[in-house]
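in:
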């Protein structure tokens, strides 16, 4: 769901079609900045990217002529899809649900000072003609392909240049840190269920224990523990936090240092450590807090011997069933 950050910008995750009519959607973090008159999208929340990492795409709000829900004819197999018409281009984006779709369409319409036409009226043409030729060329310039590799079990997209004859050239200058893509994962690649069914799962950003760096992890909550993985396909967690050790889970209101500018931050307090976790939206944060609190309470009401039925690790198919040792480095 879109939310307002500390700078009063509307933010949130959406899936955007890589190229019009290609049908491939990539997950990106969007920032609607009305003060700067831009819609920006990043590989991830900029707070989690390396210093200096810029937006991977942008659109000036004054170029937008219409924002509307995509028709079944335009995207028959893409639910919760909407389209942004800007100059001679169309941007197709996919929301997570119906409310997310409505919120984004309304926010973009308000930001670009557009009301949904009732009688076929169109916005003033002056907003479109203001666009300089150079800026229009920049909107059409993404002539960059991406080489897909698997590094340490993580899908990585590396930009590569394309020669005019269609061949691939050398790799373009990329950011020193490889960024993990959040592109669509086919159902066949997802791990099959094993052990207790998960009560909740999804991506969050967690602060490391030693280096205090922030990294995106895939969290899985079940009735005995909350585990986090380097990516969704991993079979062994980086660490499992036993619910019997959790003392309290709540929103982090007292912040200092690096935590000060973090939105949607909550903490899991255990007997040995406090885990700081950042969700993608306020709704997601409160959902995690409710789910973890309910699971801890449910575990306390179980017979004492039930606490020892499940081993400490959240084993995955093909992985070892023994206890998982947490990585001592930055996790």
């Amino acid at each position: 769901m879109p939310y307002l950050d500390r700078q009063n910008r509307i933010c949130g995750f959406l899936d955007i079609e890589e190229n019009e009519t290609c049908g491939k959607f990539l997950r990106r973090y969007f920032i609607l900045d009305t003060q700067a008159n831009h819609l920006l999208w990043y590989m991830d929340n900029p707070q989690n990217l390396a210093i200096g990492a810029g937006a991977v795409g942008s659109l000036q709000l004054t170029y937008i002529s219409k924002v509307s829900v995509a028709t079944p004819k335009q995207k028959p197999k893409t639910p919760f899809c909407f389209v942004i018409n800007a100059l001679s281009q169309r941007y197709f984006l996919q929301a997570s649900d119906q409310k997310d779709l409505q919120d984004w369409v309304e926010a973009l319409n308000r930001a670009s000072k557009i009301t949904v036409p009732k009688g076929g009226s169109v916005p003033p043409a002056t907003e479109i003609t203001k666009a300089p030729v150079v800026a229009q060329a920049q909107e059409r310039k993404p002539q960059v392909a991406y080489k897909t590799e698997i590094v340490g079990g993580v899908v990585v997209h590396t930009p590569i240049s394309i020669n005019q004859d269609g061949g691939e050239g050398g790799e373009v200058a990329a950011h020193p840190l490889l960024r993990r893509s959040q592109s669509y994962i086919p159902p066949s690649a997802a791990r099959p269920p094993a052990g207790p069914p998960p009560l909740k799962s999804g991506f969050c950003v967690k602060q490391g224990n030693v280096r205090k760096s922030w990294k995106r992890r895939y969290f899985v909550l079940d009735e005995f523990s909350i585990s986090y993985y380097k990516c969704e396909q991993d079979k062994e967690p980086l660490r499992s936090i036993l619910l019997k050790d959790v003392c309290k889970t709540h929103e982090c209101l007292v912040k200092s240092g690096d935590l000060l500018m973090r939105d949607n931050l909550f903490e899991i307090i255990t007997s040995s450590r406090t885990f700081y976790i950042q969700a993608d939206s306020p709704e997601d944060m409160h959902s995690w807090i409710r789910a973890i609190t309910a699971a801890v309470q449910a575990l306390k009401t179980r017979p004492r011997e039930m606490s020892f039925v499940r081993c400490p690790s959240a084993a995955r198919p093909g992985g070892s069933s023994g206890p998982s040792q947490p990585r001592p480095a930055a996790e």
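note: Residues 115-139, 163-190, 311-315, 320-325 have pLDDT under 50 and may be disordered.
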